[in-house]
């Protein structure tokens, strides 16, 4: 399969982590959001939304949306709990990541890292921090009770939330008051197959 992604993107990094941790053979096609690669006609023919990541199979089928790609790649692996309740908790965190975490932490990072904090986005940038810190507080409370988001088992939930949390400082978030998150970040970096984000 061919995986299309921008290695600086947290959503693409999720897919990279799953590919590495499960040792899945693939061809990585580096894309640049900043250079407009995702808006090129040849790419829009694969994904009309112009978003990455995307995986393309040899038969031409494509799959988009980072959490859907992770779920497909990790099917029947140790990254998805077999207990049905634990699996539901994993999905709970995946939805949390998309609706309560990524829209604030990732967007603040985009404004700071990709755009360089332009004056016309500063008010938006600062407004994102309250809800971003709220999401981090929810994670901190959970991780104060258990090593991973779904308990003792490392899962896709951890990968999904690690992606943007470990670079939250690039969006102006300070994790000094979140010791359990910082410990969790360290544990994840020690998981076999872990690969660092390629800056």
From TrEMBL:
Start and end residues of each GST N-terminal domain: 1-81
Residue span, GST C-terminal domain: 83-199
- The coiled-coil regions, if any, are none
The superkingdom of the source organism is Bacteria
Kindly give the Pfam families that the UniProt entry links to this protein.
Answer: GST_C (PF00043), GST_N_2 (PF13409)
CDD domains xrefs? GST_N_4 (cd03056)
Q: What is this protein called?
A: Glutathione S-transferase family protein
């Amino acid at each position: 399969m061919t995986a299309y992604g921008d290695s600086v993107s947290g959503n693409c990094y999720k897919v990279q982590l799953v590919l590495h941790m499960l040792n899945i053979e693939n061809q990585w096609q580096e894309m640049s959001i900043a250079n407009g690669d995702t808006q090129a006609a040849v790419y829009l023919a694969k994904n009309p939304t112009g978003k990455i990541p995307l995986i393309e199979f040899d038969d031409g089928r494509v799959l988009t949306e980072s959490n859907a790609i992770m779920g497909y790649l990790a099917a029947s692996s140790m990254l998805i709990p077999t207990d049905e309740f634990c699996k539901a908790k994993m999905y709970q965190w995946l939805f949390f990541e998309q609706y309560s975490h990524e829209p604030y932490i990732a967007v603040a990072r985009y404004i700071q890292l990709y755009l360089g904090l332009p004056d016309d986005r500063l008010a938006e940038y600062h407004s994102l921090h309250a809800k971003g810190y709220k999401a981090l507080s929810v994670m901190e409370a959970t991780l104060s009770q258990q090593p991973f988001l779904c308990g003792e088992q490392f899962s896709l939930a951890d990968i999904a939330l690690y992606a943007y949390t470990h670079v939250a400082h690039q969006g102006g978030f300070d994790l000094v008051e979140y010791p359990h998150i910082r410990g969790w970040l360290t544990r994840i970096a020690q998981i076999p197959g872990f690969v660092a984000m390629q800056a």
